[in-house]
Design goal:
With 373 residues, the protein is of the alpha/beta class. The chain has two domains: 119 residues, abc type-2 transporter like fold (3-Layer(aba) Sandwich), CATH 3.40.1710.10; 201 residues, no CATH class. 66% of the residues lie in helices and 9% in strands. It has 16 helices and five strands. A five-stranded mixed beta sheet has the order 2-1-3-4-5, with helices on both faces. Strand 1, helix 3 and strand 2 form a beta-alpha-beta unit. The longest helix is centred in the middle third of the chain and has 29 residues.
Length: 373
């Protein structure tokens, strides 16, 4: 028993000598409970909707009021340009992600209701996320059914005609796989560089970098650049596998997708090198990297749950997650065939992330050189 107590005491001392790992060990479950508790929600709290009312009658106004009075629907105003552009303008808003659906009320609504003829009201839904699209369809049907039974007038029969844009077959893989590509790319690229400085520190060769004539910025860039090609090849391999194994269509321009993927990879590498400069060991660097890339990219980026379903606090945190922006890009290019002009803002945010993280890593490394550790 004395020998056993000695081994047990030795292991406890080893654990207590690594307070960072101990903190992560206890903090991670609490963080997961907190995030999952707020993020795991299948409720749809906001449906951005555009209504094209070609009838302009009292029944059509009553139908619009039913959508407006429902707290789930956010009705976007129909500007003169949209009214003039009609369906084409509405499709452009759908493609840019400004609205999730647009509803077309036909010009002959009142006449059909008066004469008892069947009236088709068309709802065109963004079908990229099949689960969300089906929920929107159910909400639409409920409102139109109530309208037909109470407010449509005598004899009129209303039927909703639903069209799913971008994913007409409602295949979940078409929505999930591009999101997985985004999660895997940032995780792999951050892992590649998160071990670089920590490895130097564990092996003792960090002193050679401290006394080298290179500036801290040159060292950080030198440790980041070689992994760009490796990560880019990894990303291309993942996309090829998604395209030819799962049959994911790529409707957008491949060169634009490659450009944004490169920018996203640099962001991931910059995040990894920032973690590496702060981590005391490779083990800590790996745990922290997985913590700050995998969990937020899955739960707080819109990968599984719509951002509108998150609490205000988690929605604010989601803007600090690089995957939030690349998910919009890759899904827009792959599923919707969007163009470069639709993602200028997302690209600038990813570029800003890269610059800030690289400068922060350089500043951290400079302080370590001055202190000699």
């Amino acid at each position: 028993m004395k020998r056993l107590r000695a081994v047990v005491g030795k292991e406890f001392r080893h654990i207590l000598r690594d307070p960072r790992s101990l903190f992560i060990l206890f903090a991670l479950p609490l963080l997961m409970i907190f995030v999952f508790g707020y993020a795991l929600s299948f409720d749809l709290n906001r449906i951005d909707t555009l209504i094209l009312d070609f009838s302009g009658s009292k029944p059509s106004q009553r139908l619009q009021d039913r959508f407006r009075n429902n707290s789930c629907f956010v009705i976007h105003p129909t500007s003169p340009d949209i009214r003039a552009g009609g369906v084409e303008a509405a499709e452009e808003l759908l493609r840019r992600g400004i609205v999730q659906q647009y509803i077309v009320i036909p010009v002959d609504l009142t006449e059909n209701l008066r004469q008892g003829r069947r009236t088709n009201i068309t709802a065109v839904i963004d079908g990229s996320d099949s689960n969300t699209a089906n929920l929107i369809h159910q909400y639409d049907e409920r409102i139109l059914t109530e309208f037909a039974s109470r407010g449509a007038g005598p004899g009129g029969a209303i039927r909703i005609s639903t069209q799913m844009f971008f994913n007409p077959e409602s295949r979940s893989a078409h929505y999930i796989i591009p999101g997985l590509v985004a999660v895997i790319m940032v995780m792999v690229s951050a892992l590649l560089t998160s071990l670089s400085v920590a490895r130097e520190r564990e092996s003792g060769s960090i002193e050679l970098l401290f006394i080298s004539p290179l500036s801290s910025r040159q060292i950080i860039l030198g440790k980041t650049i070689p992994y760009i090609l490796v990560s880019l090849l990894e990303g291309v391999l993942i996309m090829l596998f998604a395209r030819f194994w799962f049959g994911i269509p790529i409707k957008g321009n491949l060169l634009i997708l490659l450009l944004f993927a490169l920018l996203y990879i640099i962001t991931g590498l910059s995040l990894g090198i920032m973690i590496s400069t702060a981590a005391a060991s490779q083990k800590v660097a790996m745990i922290v990297t997985l913590l700050v890339t995998l969990l937020p990219s899955i739960l707080l980026s819109g990968f599984i749950f719509p951002l509108d379903s998150l609490s205000p606090l988690l929605r604010a945190i989601s803007y600090l997650v690089p995957a939030t922006y690349f998910l919009r890009i890759i899904r827009g290019l792959v599923l919707q065939g969007a163009e470069l002009r639709h993602f200028i803002q997302e690209g600038l945010v990813l570029l800003a992330f890269s610059i800030v993280l690289l400068n922060a890593a350089s500043a951290k490394f400079t302080r370590q050189r001055k202190s000699g550790r």
